[in-house]
Amino acid sequence: MTDQSTATEQIVIIGSGPAGWTAAIYAARAQLNPVCYVGVPKQDPGPVLPGGQLMLTTEVENYPGFPDGITGPEMMGKIQEQAERFGTRVVGEDIVSCDFSSHPFTLKTSGGNEIKANSVVIATGATANWLNQENEQRLARSGGGVSACAVCDGALPMFRDQPLGVIGGGDTAMEEATYLTKFASKVYVIHRRDELRASKIMQERFISQPNAEVLWNKTVVDVLGDEKISGVELEDTVTGEHSTMDLTGLFVAIGHTPTTGFLEGSGIEMDENNYIRLDSRTSATNIPGVFAAGDVADHEYRQAITAAGMGCQAALDAERWLAANGHS
Predict the structure, then answer these.
(1) Residue 152 appears among annotated catalytic residues
(2) What is the pLDDT of residues 135-187, one digit of tens each?
(3) Strand order in 249-252's β-sheet?
(4) Is 171 a catalytic residue?
(5) Active-site entry in 152, 295, 298, 317
(6) Which of 36, 98, 153, 317 is an active site residue?
(7) Which residue of 9, 27, 150, 294 could cross-link 307, Cys pair, CB 3.0 to 4.6 Å?
(8) Domain residues for 319?
(9) What is the pTM assigned to this prediction?
(10) Per the residue annotation, which of 36, 94, 98, 149 is the catalytic one?
């Protein structure tokens, strides 16, 4: 870790997932002397760790360069080491507010410090929405078969030819469930209502699979299992009746929340779901000198590789902007 400087920073990176660290690698190699605010661990409303969602992923098999796979925490540790090797400074604090109304920008930290910056890359990601049940959270953290990303984890050997559950009823849940039908013996969508919110085409795509089934008017009131999930306890939302179902994997697909609360009042434009709006061809936000990368601005793909690519874009865009505006 490093002490904050009273001088104006060329570039401040907020966030420490694949997007933030990749931006740091590129910015450091461009001799911009980046400082990265990695945040602090949180448990409410769900586990949030410096390093992002990959810190809750046991096995990563779809990131290029790791033919035998790698754990999420190990990957993030290696990327951080790479960023630090080129001189990235790391601060274990949150940025709690931003003033982009004048230049240089002013950022305030959770430690009570005030930072001046010529450019900023926002890479704070998005957190999965969870049921926030004790055993769900424990098994998600330990790699016990509970996940918030089927595309990330669904092809793992532990889930193949096994009964799997997906909680949700929107397009994301249908996409995740349909993906899982390629590997699972059976995929159950567990939905609290008697109709799905997903578009008709997404519903049909899932329901048409021979190993697909929707459990209507059901909520998960407990996740069962010790080292690994063994099933779920369900409650019927109409009758109140309880039942149990054997499952080897559970995927929670009830949406994500972008980490943008600290930007309130900053002037950064966001969409209706509070994801940062970007210029269609770059990482630029509506405020010159402020860039965004990764899941904080991407509700479509949400993959480590796409976040890393966006981090590269943000650093290159920031470098060019600083040079064009006399800050190189």
Answers:
(1) yes
(2) 999 998 888 999 988 888 898 999 999 999 999 999 889 989 999 999 999 99
(3) 146-147, 249-252, 163-167, 186-190, 212-215
(4) no
(5) 152
(6) 153
(7) 294
(8) 9-127+256-324
(9) 0.80
(10) 149
